[in-house]
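BUG: 3D viewer hangs when loading the predicted structure for this chain

Environment: internal workstation, default settings.
Expected: structure renders.
Actual: progress bar stalls at 90%.

Input used:
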Amino acid sequence: MTEKLNKSISYKALQTVGFTLYSMLLIPLLIRFWDKETYGTWIAIYALYNLVQVVEFGHNTFVGNAFNAMVHTDKEGAKSLLGSAFRINFLSGLIQMSVIGIIYKLGAFSFFITNDMPDGDIAIILFILFLYRLLIGSYRGLLVKILNPFGYIYKSYQFSIFERLIEFTVLVAAAVYGISLINMALLWLIFKSCYSLGILFYLRKLLPEYFPWWQKGSLALGWQNYKKSLPYIGSSLLDRTASDGVVLLISVLLGSTFLPLFIAIRTLVNFGTKVSDIFLSPITPELINLYAKQQKERLLQVIGSYWLITGGILIIGFMLSIWLIEPIFEIWTNGRLTFRPLVYYGLILVMITQNVGSIMDAFLRGINRTNLVFQTSFIRTAMILIGIYVFYTMSIKGVILALGIAEFFKSIIWLPYWCSKELSADFKKVGMLWLNPLLIGLSVLFYFIEFREPPIWVLLGIIVLVFLLLLWQYRQMSPAVLRLLQRKYAFLGLIAKKNKNG
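C-alpha cells produced before the viewer hung:
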C-alpha cells in the first residue's frame, strides 16, 4: 500500500471515528437536557434543511469533478469554472430561501413537521440556517473541492472534523442552557460563518493562484455547467429523500416525539455502515483498475472477498449485540428512550443488505455509469415512498418493511443483474456470494422479534451455520485475491495468509 493511500485511509478512518463519536456523545446529551418534542422538532427541521440543499450539493459535485479533470491541463479554464460556480451558488442560495418562504406562505410545514411549534418560528430557524449557506457556507464547501487534485484531500477531512466539533458545541450548549431553537440557529450562523471564513483565508494562503476567484468566469458559463449538473442534483435529491425524506415521513406519521428514538437506533446501526466504508474506500480504485484491464474474474473475486470481510464483521457484531444491545441502549440514553427491538433488528437487516450492494454501486459509479446509477437511486427511492404509503397503517413496521423491500430489490436483484451484464459474467462464479450468509443469519431477527426467548440450541445452530458458511466463502477466494487484500488491508491486519505456495 502506497504512502499516499495510507495517509488518505488514516484520515478517512479518523473522520469516521470522529463522526461516530459525534453521534454517540451528542444523542444522550441532547436527550438528557431537551424534551423529546424539542429534540424531535430539531431533527425534523434539520432533515428538511438537508433535503432542500440538494440544489447546491449536486452542482458542487459536478464542479469538483470537472475541476479535477481540467486543472492540470487548462488552469485558466479551471479558474473560470470555479468563479462561475460561485455565482450560481449565490443564486441557488436565494432559491433555497425562496423554497422555505413558499412553504411558509402555503402553510405547508405540517406536511413535513408535526409538532406544536408555530410555522413562523420554523421558518425563521430555516431562514437563518440558509442564510449561513448563502453568505459563506456554500462557497466554502465548493472551494474545498480544489484540494483534491493537489493531494490535499486529507485536509478536507480535517475541516469536516472541526466543523462537527463546532456543531456539537453549539447544540450541546443550547440544550444545557435552555437556549431556544431560534437563538441556537443564530449561534450556528455566527460560529460556522467564522470558521468557514477562516478556512477561506487558509485556502488563499495554501493555493493563492485561485484567488481572487470572484473575478473569473461568468453567470452564463455557470448556468451552462449547472444544467450539466442536473443528473447529479437529481441523484442527490433521490438519495436525500431516501434518508432525510424518511425522517420527515416518520415525523408526519408518528409525530416528532418518535424521531429521537428512531435517530438513536439508526445511529447505532449506521456504525456498521461506517466500518464497511473504511474497507470500501481502498478497494474501489482496484475494481476500476481490474475492469480497465478486463480482469473480470478477478474483479468478481474481489467483490466476493469484500462481502466476506465486511459481512463477517457485521454478522459477528450483530450476534454479540443480541445479548448486549438493550442494556447498552438503556445506559446510553439514560433510560429516557425505550428500546424498540423491531426498529433495531429491521434496520440491521436493511443495513447489511445495503452492504451487499454498496460495492456494486461503487463499481458502477467508478466506471461512470451515471444513467444506471440515477435509475438505481430513482427505483430505490420510489419503492421506499410507495411502500410507506402502502404500509402506513402498520406505523413504524410499515416504514421498516418499505425500507427492507426497496433495499432487497436494489442490492440482491437489481445491482447484481446489471453488474453481471456489465462484466459479461455470472455471479455464480463467485459461489453465489451475493446470497451472503449474513442474510441467512439475519433471518433469525424475525424469530427473536416474534418469540424473544428461543431455545438455546436454535441460536447455537444458527450461529454455527453462519460461521460454516463464512468459512466456505473464505475457501472460495483465490490466493491471488488474498494477496491483493493483504496489501490493501494490511493496516487492519485482518487477512490471514493462505496457501503460501500459491
